[in-house]
Design goal:
The structure holds 2 protein chains of 2 kinds. By secondary structure, chain A is mostly helical. Chain A is built from 7 helices and 2 strands, in the order E-E-H-H-H-H-H-H-H. The chains are: A mainly alpha, B mainly alpha.
Chain lengths: ~230, ~90
């Protein structure tokens, strides 16, 4: 039984192999890019906009609001990263609906790549916001003794992000294939629907956790606290 | 019993126990967290957005422990490195 789409190889030459993960990742990317290009070709700012532009606006404002609620003050600076992450993971999990499709997030390669990009994004955003000194100060955050634990937690939460997403999507596929061999009539459909729901929730969780890590790395909480001004 | 039999025997039994025992604690923890979330929603329905979002994030983090156990079971059953190694050396 195949555990991940990495094992389905369509073409191989030397060490270059085109696996199912690669093919379906590119399909999801092409769908996202072509849809966005087609919808944003003629953007209007009047009262009556096309329904596709309305959908995109709902998505963008929704993600902006979620980022703001988690604690990042200016979501425009981060939405290019977090929004793309959410849209990619959500689309690749929702396309389980279509036959012959294998979600690329069901392969450890994709999820490790996504969580490595979060690992790199946290220092990048932190240094862009507070400078190198300000970012390194977050490691000493509550007290100085927490330094080794903060470093370990950086690595362990990256691993946790990757394995969480991989485990959820992979287990959805494995459960559907097992139920197909036991009761092939209606229950695989129900389990597939549950898999799509889990996929959406996991996309949201991944993005929210990435937002929380970036907010912790950019010291957002320190900036919004203003000292109480006393008049002397 | 030779080594391959022992490996298969132990892998299968441990795979079963891993998921079985490993899912007890996350399930109990998730039950408690949902119960607390429900009671705080009943106390303060205005904060339902924050409470729901925090509940989902917390549930996903607790769930990931159960997912780790499941992944280990799957590796033991389908991608067992010791089994593959012994099969490869036995084939030579």
């Amino acid at each position: 039984m195949k555990l991940s789409p990495d094992e389905t190889i369509y073409w191989k030459y030397g060490f270059v192999e085109i696996s199912a993960t690669l093919v379906w990742t590119w399909v999801v990317m092409l769908v996202l890019i072509i849809t966005s290009v087609l919808i944003t070709r003629k953007l209007k700012s009047e009262l009556r906009i096309s329904r596709w532009q309305c959908i995109l606006e709902m998505l963008v404002t929704g993600i902006n609001q979620q980022i703001k609620e988690v604690g990042l003050g200016h979501p425009e600076k981060y939405i290019w990263f977090l929004g793309t992450m959410f849209l990619f993971i959500a689309t690749s999990n929702l396309f389980i609906l279509f036959p012959f499709y294998e979600p690329p997030t069901g392969s450890l390669s994709t999820t490790v790549a996504l969580s490595l990009s979060v690992l790199v994004a946290v220092p990048v955003f932190g240094i862009m916001e507070s400078g190198i000194g300000g970012y390194l100060k977050t490691y000493i955050e509550p007290t100085f003794i927490m330094l080794p634990f903060n470093i370990i937690s950086e690595l362990s939460r990256t691993l946790a992000l990757a394995v969480r997403l991989f485990g959820n999507i992979m287990s959805g596929g494995v459960v559907v294939s097992i139920i197909l061999s036991i009761t092939p009539f209606i229950f695989p459909v129900i389990m597939n629907a549950l898999g799509m729901l889990t996929g959406l929730v996991q996309a949201y969780i991944f993005t929210i956790l990435a937002t929380v890590y970036i907010a912790a790395g950019t010291n957002e909480s320190k900036k919004t606290e203003e000292p109480i001004k006393t008049n002397k | 019993m030779d080594s391959t039999t022992i490996i298969a025997f132990v892998s299968i039994i441990v795979a079963g126990f891993t998921t079985g025992i490993g899912c007890i604690a996350p399930a109990l923890a998730q039950g408690r967290s949902v119960a607390t979330a429900l009671s705080s929603l009943a106390q303060q329905p205005d904060a339902s957005d924050t409470i729901t979002r925090t509940l989902f994030v917390g549930l996903a983090m607790i769930e990931s422990t159960a997912i780790y156990c499941f992944v280990v079971s799957m590796i033991l059953i389908f991608a067992n490195p010791f089994w593959n190694h012994f099969i490869a050396t036995a084939a030579k």
